[in-house]
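Appendix C: a fully annotated inverse folding record. The material below is reproduced so that readers can follow the format used throughout the book. The structure is listed first as tokens, followed by the designed sequence.
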């Protein structure tokens, strides 16, 4: 039997303590109806074609984790309230593919777009654009550049030019003798926003280890705060109502919380199934909920109860 959800904050089993084992996290969010805002209106509307997007789980290991915590941390940002999509949500860095996200052989090192096409299950052009978007969004949103061989000075200026669309990533890399390091990315999952949402994304989730000598920051207009989180800690804060998470973020945090460190997460990417996950939307007790395919015990209440 499913327990009823709370009315305002995301629900889940009681907040875990610092001593909570990572393997308990999947059980912690596996039965109640979970009200998680951010998926948009559920009022019937013409079908919106999902826009390709890339999200990056930037991970690192805390050198001295608190008692009861594994070293693994992931970088999360709380989005600005009032944004068209995921307003106020705490999310991983990422965003939609844009016109400047294209493969440029002279500025690329690592697995080719052809390799990524096979891994991601999409055409070669889109695969190159997704990897490019993953690197670009990570640089724009948290200042981490997955490129080499060595980073030049004035990175902040190049980042600002990229954000303002005065240049694209290929121009920034080529102008500084850099190459995009596609070998620093690993594929994790693929989520597609359910059809009722007026803004839909076909989002490929990647994992990247924070490069040595670089620091992630919160210097972006798209977020009001950003920091490193232990995965279990983020789930605890979500359950207590202190942060708001969307279904893909909840599930992804649940999955990586099973790993003790970044090396374990990166190793797990080799066996990840990238079949698209599309929550199904139905009405439950007069309100719309999203149901994760293949897991009917997880129901996520959607905002906006319109007919």
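Designed amino acids, in order:
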């Amino acid at each position: 039997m499913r327990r009823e959800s709370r009315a305002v904050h995301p629900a889940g089993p009681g907040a875990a303590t610092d001593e909570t084992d990572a393997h308990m996290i999947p059980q912690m969010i596996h039965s109640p109806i979970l009200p998680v805002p951010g998926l948009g209106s559920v009022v019937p509307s013409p079908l919106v074609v999902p826009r390709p997007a890339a999200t990056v789980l930037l991970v690192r290991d805390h050198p001295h984790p608190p008692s009861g915590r594994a070293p693994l941390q992931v970088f999360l940002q709380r989005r600005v309230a009032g944004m068209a999509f995921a307003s106020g949500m705490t999310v991983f860095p990422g965003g939609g593919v844009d016109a400047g996200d294209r493969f440029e052989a002279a500025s690329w090192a690592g697995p080719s777009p052809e390799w990524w096409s096979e891994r991601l299950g999409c055409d070669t052009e889109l695969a190159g654009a997704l990897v490019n978007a993953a690197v670009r969004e990570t640089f724009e949103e948290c200042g981490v550049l997955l490129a080499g061989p060595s980073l030049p000075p004035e990175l902040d200026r190049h980042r600002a030019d990229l954000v303002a669309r005065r240049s694209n990533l290929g121009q920034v890399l080529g102008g500084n003798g850099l190459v995009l390091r596609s070998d620093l990315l690993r594929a994790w999952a693929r989520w597609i926003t359910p059809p009722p949402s007026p803004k839909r994304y076909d989002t490929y989730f990647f994992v990247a280890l924070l490069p040595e000598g670089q620091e992630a920051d919160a210097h972006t207009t798209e977020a009001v705060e950003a920091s490193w989180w232990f995965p279990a800690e983020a789930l605890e804060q979500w359950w207590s109502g202190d942060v708001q998470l969307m279904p893909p973020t909840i599930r992804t945090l649940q999955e990586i919380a099973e790993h003790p460190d970044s090396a374990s997460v990166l190793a797990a990417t080799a066996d990840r199934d990238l079949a698209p996950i599309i929550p199904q939307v139905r009405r439950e007790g007069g309100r719309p909920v999203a149901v994760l395919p293949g897991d009917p015990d997880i129901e996520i209440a959607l905002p906006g109860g319109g007919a």
